Please model this.
Amino acid sequence: MKNIILHLILLCTILNSIVAQPYGQNKKRKISVENFSLVPFSEAINKDSIKIVTFLEIPYNSIQFIKNKDNYLARYQASVSIKTKSGKTILNKIWLDSIKVDNYKDTKSYIKNSKHLITKSVKIGEEYFIVGELQDIDTRKKGLIRKSINTKKFVKRPKIVDPIFLLNLDGDWGFEENLIPTKGYRVREIGNGLSLKLSGFLKNEDYTLKLFLKNKNSADSLIFTKNEKNNKQFFNHLIFIPSNELQNLRNTFKLIIKQGIKVVEKEMVFSLYKPGISNFVGNIDIALREMRYILTNEEALELKELNKSEKEDFFFTLWKKRDPTPKTESNELMEEYYLRVNYTNEHFDGWQAGWETDRGKIYILFGPPDEIQRSNSNLNNSYQIWFYNKVNKQFRFKDQNGFGDYRLDVPFLGSGF
Model:
């Protein structure tokens, strides 16, 4: 019964305010034109150099569209430059371009985008800065992103350059023909599979390379190995992984390089988009634990009996039952729930994860409070009172030890943590 009541509380508070904003958020809100992406990818191409392929990606919703007869038009200027630490510009590219769409909905899309890229080979041993700028021609607003690539770390060997996930797409995208890089986060379509570029720097001696894949269907399965002599002092391999091995939400790759007694490792995650799943969910095991406050007793018992391969299907079943709009792709309840979990982890962590704290529990179930009263008059008697006017409730939290460990004076619904 306790779990059902908690579920109903959460459902009511979320449906009353599905777009509830976290209180006390001090971060500066980005303007639209700042919401573009600047993503550099690197690969070893020689014993003393890497190739940097930098993408500037402009989502349609980041620039202003103007009605133009039967369509909508947006105009922008974009640029990408690469500089040394001393400020010397070694590459600069400017694009003056426009986007035309036929319907208004596309102007608000964060998925559809315009891409530009530059490619540059640089010597290792220096720090480079990549600067991307986007200006909306009609509003005159500008956005700026600055990123650094420190290649000094590649001097000591062996070293692995961050592996790159590559998907099939016609065109020249800076790597092998018809392969475009992706960050590997919530990828919607992989076709027959994906390619994984592995590269790095080596000592002038033999090496062993091993690539493992871990997901709900396989636990650290060896999918590629290489054992060869080396006198080039770098490696560069392209591995294809068929789609039937990547049907899980989260797929973790681990690359291991061994030279003599030296062993280096690198992990990277490739995740698939699945309709109805929150953007804040990246690990099903963790997401299931974070559902603790809204699981019924029967669901909690059933979860304990499941093995790892069964948990993902169980997760989707749980949220399908709780979907307030089952005929749409989006599950608003799930999205708001994990948005709140994410907020608590950022603001209430301490002795334990934010979502597990007393304040985290109340925030997840009720959302941001309408009012907070604070007292800091005595380090041993610091407290907060959260007021929720719509449901006529208030919660008093006391700092137990002066280190921000706020606990409820009276446990909510007698629920223990």
User: Anything to note?
Assistant: The first helix runs from residue 2 to 16.
